[in-house]
Amino acid sequence: MAKSCSIFFYEGYIDTAPTIVSLAKALDECAYTVNIYTTKHQTSNSIKLSEHVKIILFTKSSEVPAISFLHKLFKVKFSSLIPVIDLIAFFVQCVMYFIGQSFSNNEFACSLSKEDVNIGVDRIGSILSLVKARLFNQKVVYLSLELNEPKTFGKAGLIMTNRLERLTYQTSACVLVQDEDRFKTLSEFNQYQHPKVFYLPNSPYYSSFSPQDSNYDGNYFRDMFGLSEEDYSCIVLHAGMINEFVCSGSLASAFSAMNKNYALVFNSSWTISEDDVYVRTLSDSNKKNLFLSLNPLPYAQIHRVFESATIGLVFYQNVDNNFSQISMASGKLAHFLKHGKPVLVSDLESLSKLVEKYKFGIVIQDPSNSVELENAIEVILNDYELYSRNARLCFDEEFDFGKKVKPFLSFMAKYGTKSLKG
Known about the structure:
By secondary structure, this protein is α/β, with parallel strands linked by helices. It has helices at residues 18-29, 65-74, 82-104, 106-114, 122-136, 154-171, 180-190, 220-225, 248-256, 277-285, 302-307, 321-324, 331-338, 349-358, 370-382, 384-399, 401-404, 406-415; strands at residues 3-9, 32-39, 53-58, 117-121, 139-143, 174-177, 197-199, 234-240, 262-268, 290-293, 311-314, 343-346, 361-364. The longest helix has 23 residues, at 82-104. It is globular. The two termini are 20 Å apart. The protein has two domains: 3-200 and 405-415, 3-Layer(aba) Sandwich (Rossmann fold), CATH 3.40.50; 220-399, Rossmann fold. The protein is built from 18 helices and 13 strands.
């Protein structure tokens, strides 16, 4: 009998969430049909996984004309109500989709009621998965990507997190989270030590799904910006978000003070205009060796980005648990290690412990210190092959999604639908 799975992921940035893509691929390889219910994102239409993985795109509540005014109305004084609006809008769109598909396709209605598992991602996704699981007597799996303290949602948000999300978490068949530290924090937030947890790093999973343009042998950034080996011997890559939470401003200024022929490349996860205020500030602060890649590649070609780097940058501000416990949750770190790229990391315990264990990079105390950064780069370049081997070793032992997901898949296969809560 065919197996099927629903993944509820409200945030929508599938192209920058390796866990979602990797989990869908792993389930597909285990003969699951996977339906991912999510919201529209800049590049979400570019994701093509397989004929058995379907991505259903809804509209974020802030983009729905009939209710977008509520976002503007509540944004200042009643911001805690916005998550409630998001939840209701996502729920309504899911229900309308289910009804529409059921009327037009009897097979869909049958499969809807017989789906094996519902995987809910974080707050809104988990609540939707619980609702569907309860309606059809199915099981639910709680998947954590972000660590959000309940108190940040205000009174209305607390009702939702304390009662609905917490109920989902406590009654789920199992919990998927990146590592033990994040599980401990998640347990504190939900006031429950779940007895069944599986650790999945936020990392790419290739397996039989090899990149579509694996024969490409050029250097993406050298080709894009015309960076010759003579003028720029080393490409230092800052991938993902571009903002102060990841020290973008400090890094741009620090590299402008260097006298070495290093190129600093910022590659954004989503499209940003060159006229963006923050982008213009970065450009003004470094007209010497900063290169901005503001239009992301399709996910199937994301390997080009990381293959083109000499050294990676993995920097996060210590603003909360979500960033301080980032090591196994950092998608860009996993990509760098997968491609054997040494990295410079910020001085966060989760990152420094990993670097100390595997010696794949150097911990930087001050990302605004050009001398410290330049010296660290020189150390790596002088023993590059060793750092590169260590990076791949760390990926193989800590970030290999294909290995890490096996216990969860075995759990699913062993216990079956009726044996699990839902």
